[in-house]
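Summary of Year 1 activities. Much of the first year was spent building the evaluation harness for sequence design. The harness presents a backbone, in tokenized form, and records the residue chosen at every position. We chose the following record to illustrate the format because it has been used consistently in internal testing since the harness was completed.
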């Protein structure tokens, strides 16, 4: 039985190059993740393999090299840029005499640091418990046997079995509480649906600039920083768009390649804000040379959470870092906005974004000029109650001439309520 070492500030990073992996980019991302976790990388060990080794993930020679790097730098933790099995983590810890983390554990640790809201903390704890449950045997092998003798006989469970049972009970408790939070979120979504408020959800790769854009549009003070997973808890704000009216803008957690499956499942309640949105603003850091792969990764996660069918508007952010790039709107063959080039940090191109949002959401609006005769004056009250009147006047014969603008759902509901009366008084 070896002593378990607590994770510290000094880390040895390990990245293995595989033939089917974008190694350079993944290594850069590992360094950013480690920096976001507040850990200092004192050495980087790299190598090449065709396939992971069963015992150490790396070969025995490379494992000795990692252990020597730990001793030479007096490191507290070894962080792999890959997913390790519980047995591989245990074998490496015995060899290196320090804590060993894989990519999933590192991301979970960052999430645990950043969670502020009650729901976010529950979701992170759930993901951590599910991850830990397969790794309890590490460092607890001395508790696998039941003790015998007078005063030492227990309830028939080993300590390891007891820990597993307590974990299962805690997971059940968290799932119940998350179900309650999910119901509260669904009630909020239903109330927004009843109010006919369109929802716009910011999505994108982590550190693409979503929170900065959110703050610029809404004049909020959501925490934004040049680090991975600066935002964890979803934030919603109401904004006003010309010719559309009020809309809800939601800032969500960023995505990353190889996002742990437990995290995707745990954050399902949060990601439902994305699923139920009327429009996704897919924010992309175009100053990052990996923007194409990052965009593909976000689309893959959107597909996994069943949000790939939600309309998207691509936001090409950080153009202030690109030489000669000016803000603009790119359109498709039918003239609809598909891309907006801007800098959220500098506030450049925000007016173009708001115009594009108005165009995208106004497709769900109807515009009509009505001539309402005195005999149908009962329609006036319904139109006033919907606050949809843009202009009104009266003709010489007493007809009410009114220009209206409202969500298409409201219009169809009115047509159904008044039968064919509304269609008969449309002038345009």
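For this record, the design step produced the sequence shown next.
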């Amino acid at each position: 039985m070896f002593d378990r070492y607590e994770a510290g500030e000094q880390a040895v990073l390990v990245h293995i190059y595989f033939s089917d992996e974008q190694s350079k980019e993944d290594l850069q991302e590992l360094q950013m993740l480690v920096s976001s976790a507040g850990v200092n990388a004192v050495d980087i060990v790299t190598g090449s393999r065709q396939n992971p080794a069963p015992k150490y993930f790396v070969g025995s020679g490379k494992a000795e090299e990692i252990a020597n790097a730990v001793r030479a730098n007096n490191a507290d933790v070894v962080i792999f840029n890959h997913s390790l099995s519980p047995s591989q983590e245990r074998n490496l810890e015995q060899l290196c005499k320090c804590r060993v983390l894989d990519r999933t554990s590192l991301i979970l640790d960052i999430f645990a640091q950043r969670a502020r809201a009650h729901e976010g903390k529950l979701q992170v704890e759930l993901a951590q418990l599910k991850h830990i449950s397969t790794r309890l045997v590490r460092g607890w092998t001395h508790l696998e046997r039941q003790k015998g003798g007078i005063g030492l006989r227990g309830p028939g469970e080993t300590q390891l079995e007891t820990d597993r049972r307590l974990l299962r009970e805690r997971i059940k408790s968290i799932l119940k509480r998350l179900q309650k939070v999910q119901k509260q979120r669904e009630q909020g979504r239903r109330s927004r649906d009843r109010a006919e408020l369109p929802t716009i959800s910011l999505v994108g790769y982590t550190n693409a600039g979503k929170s900065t854009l959110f703050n610029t549009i809404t004049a909020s003070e959501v925490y934004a920083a040049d680090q991975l997973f600066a935002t964890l808890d979803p934030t919603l704000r109401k904004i006003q768009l010309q010719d559309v009216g009020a809309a809800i803008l939601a800032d969500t957690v960023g995505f990353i390649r190889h996002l742990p499956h437990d995290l995707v499942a745990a954050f399902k309640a949060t990601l439902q804000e994305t699923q139920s949105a009327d429009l996704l603003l897919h924010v992309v850091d175009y100053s990052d040379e990996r923007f194409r792969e990052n965009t593909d990764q976000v689309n893959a996660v959107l597909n996994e959470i069943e949000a790939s069918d939600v309309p998207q508007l691509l936001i090409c952010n950080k153009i202030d870092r690109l030489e000669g790039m000016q803000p603009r709107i790119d359109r498709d063959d039918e003239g609809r906005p598909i891309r907006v080039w801007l800098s959220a940090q500098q506030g450049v191109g925000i007016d173009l974004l708001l115009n594009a949002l108005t165009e995208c959401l106004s497709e769900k609006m109807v515009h009509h000029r009505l001539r309402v005769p005195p005999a149908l004056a009962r329609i006036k009250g319904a139109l006033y109650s919907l606050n949809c009147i843009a202009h009104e006047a009266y003709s010489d014969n007493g007809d009410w001439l009114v220009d209206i603008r409202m969500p298409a759902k409201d219009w169809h509901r009115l047509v159904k309520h008044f039968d064919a009366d509304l269609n008969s008084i449309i002038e345009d």
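The first helix runs from residue 23 to 36. Quantitative recovery figures across the full test set are reported in Table 2.
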